[in-house]
Amino acid sequence: MGVKPGSHRFAIHPNIIRQVFFLASLIFLGLVIVSELYYLVGALFGAITLYVILMYRMKFLVIIFRWHPTLAALSLMLLSFIVMIIPLAYMGMIAVDKIAPIVANPEIINEAFMKIHTYLLESFNINLLNQDNIQKISDKVLPFTQKTLGGTLNFLGNIVLMYLILFFLLVNNRQVEKWLRQNLPFKTKNVKKIITDFRALVYSNALGIPLVALVQGLAGLIGYWIFGVDEFILMGILTAICSVIPIIGSLAIYLPLAIYQFVTVGTLQGAGVLLWGFLVIGSVDNIARFMIQRKLADVHPLITLLGVMAGISLFGFIGVIFGPLLISVFFILVSIYIDEFGKVDANKPDSVA
Fold first, then answer.
1. Average pLDDT over residues 4-28
2. Is the model's pLDDT at 317 over the cut of 80?
3. Are 228 and 265 contacting, i.e. CB atoms less than 8 angstroms apart?
4. Are 194 and 96 within 8 A, CB to CB?
5. Which among 299, 293, 295 is positioned nearest to 198, based on CA atoms?
6. Average pLDDT taken over every residue of the chain
7. Sign (positive or negative) of CA dihedral 191, 192, 198, 201
8. Inter-CA distances, 5 with 1, 8, 34, 289, Å
9. How many alpha carbons lie under 13 Å from residue 257 in its C-beta half-sphere?
10. CB neighbours of 238 closer than 8 A, spacing ≥ 6?
């Protein structure tokens, strides 16, 4: 029988079949690799973040001072380990050491809540932290805290792998940049935009956010020590971590802590923590953000909030850096996709069906 006229319109070109098969195989293998190496994502993100920060220093040492690439890479890695990783690891280990017993024995935190509840009820007739509300808080907070501690320990365990990846990125930085420019499937202007915007976001998230948090955490730690808070170091670390959350910020730590000091220690200590929080920690936060983050990329507060929530869940407390970065990169890619494929060329006539 002959082929009916027009039936060739429904035939699929062999090149399209090969392309679909190749993409399907590539996606399948990529999903398998990601699922098996998912626990190493924190190490990869850490290596990329440090690479962006150290890249120009690497070029400076190799090109200007004629250092051997291996020596330059090892020197920068050692410097970053001393300046960035050791403080973060120290804070992470303190947080894990202090919070893990509370997570293992929730009655400790429930008892503290009950003391605050009794104080608020007797002094101000506020029935906020009753047994039902305390149970709801525990059911929400404890699983999140357990996941955060687990992610923190995993990241600390991946530091060696992170520096191994970083070493090869630094030593082969020219090849890395050449590969990116040649293989990213975008216009040249969009490739440059990705590299430029990603670098600005890394500096804002990996340097700006931690510096602001460090200043605010130190201010909190000093005040907590002055007014007799037992775990003032832990509270300072938690103040630093919560400082990255928009709107609420460190208020989430020093307000409940002030109430707890009112209940368990005395009026003077509680009032001192409360005033120190509003006057000193709040002022330090505003000044630090004005002086530091105005020189870096401007990240929308909603992106920071969502990024912190997702980042802590994925990477532990180090996710306060990676989470906002991840969401910001997502929106950069969306804008580039729209520029590449979503805009109609006004010079081309509409296709005829």
1. 73
2. no
3. yes
4. no
5. 299
6. 77
7. negative
8. 12, 8, 48, 71
9. 29
10. 95, 253
245 Cβ contact list (under 8 Å, min separation 6): 252, 304, 305, 308
Q: Where are the domains of the chain?
A: 39-341
- Backbone φ, ψ for residue 158 (5° rounding): -95, 10
Contact 269, 207 (CB under 8 A): no
Report d(CA 38, CA 44) in Å as an integer. Answer: 10
Q: Which token pair is 265?
A: 């220690």
Give residues with Cβ within 8 angstroms of 226, minimum separation 6: 272, 276
Considering only CA atoms, which of 103, 115, 131 is closest in space to residue 257? 115
Mean pLDDT across 139-151: 62
* Residue 182 token pair: 């040649």
What pLDDT score was predicted for residue 214?
Answer: 86
Rounded mean pLDDT, 243-266: 82
Nearest by Cα to 229 from 247, 278, 237: 237
Residues 240 and 224 sit within 8 Å (Cβ to Cβ): no
Per DSSP, the chain holds a count of helices (H) and strands (E) of: 16, 0
152-211 pLDDT per residue, tens: 666 666 788 889 999 999 999 888 888 877 777 777 777 777 778 888 888 877 777 788
Output DSSP code: residue 250.
Answer: T
Contacts of 83 (CB under 8 A, 6+ apart): none
Model pTM? 0.71
Q: Give pLDDT, residue 118.
A: 76
Let me know the angle formed at the C-alpha of 33 by 85 and 192, rounded to the nearest 5 degrees.
Answer: 65
* Section 49-71 average pLDDT: 90
Query: What is the length of the chain?
Result: 353
CA distance 228 to 266: 10
